Fold this protein.
Amino acid sequence: MQDNTQPPPLFDRALLRRRRLRAIDQGADGVLLRLVIDELQDRLEINTSRFPLALALGDPSPALGEAIAATGKVDAVISGDLCHIPPRHGPAACLELDEEALPFTPASFDLIVSALSLQWANDLPGVLARHRQALKPGGLFLGAMTGGRTLIELRTALQAAEQAVEGGVSPRVAPVADLRQMGDLLARAGFTSSVADLDSRILRYDGALDLMRDLRRFGAANVLNRRRRQPLRAETLAYAAEYYAEHFSDPDGRVRASFDFIYLSGWRGASD
């Protein structure tokens, strides 16, 4: 008898929502998101097209929608995320929605911009295809997600610590996409003139624990369905911090954290 049981989704998106809401409540500063929003704004500003209606995805604050509106390339912006906070000012309207199941009819938007949320999609090819479907013919998709060697230092330190202290390794950091894979997925989703490029950044922290706190403020703690339910043991955490400082610190004692941001762009064909 054939087993049609499907494996569980990679990410627990309900947990992701709760953790992002907690990050907002704790005053998330959004350093990583701000870097990406600035870059997406720059890329949109050099585009020669106009976009009457835009959808901004992945930012629980109004910042992404406001940045899109500030380019002068759009007439109206709708912002949406798993969770949101009300806009301070400007033309952006905020909706609570799941990027994996956009609640819009096909061909609704002239522009869709997604910031640092695609890396948590359980069905990334499907999400990209639905984004394309939500665009009007001739519409543009711009996206940014983490990938490549993002947090390679933290991955290495956590694996070394768990192996040394607990005798085994558990899933602590989500798998990441690579640049070539994302280029292929854009093409498979039906985008034309699609481009995927990489922006590598090194951020510096006082220590590994400061990096982990920053990730929690972003709501980016472990949301893998196969994650270990017990919190990291104090001994394991201390070992990871020491390992990180020993292997990934600069002469001034601060530690490095690698982030690879993959930027995506693609058009829905005018005749689609």
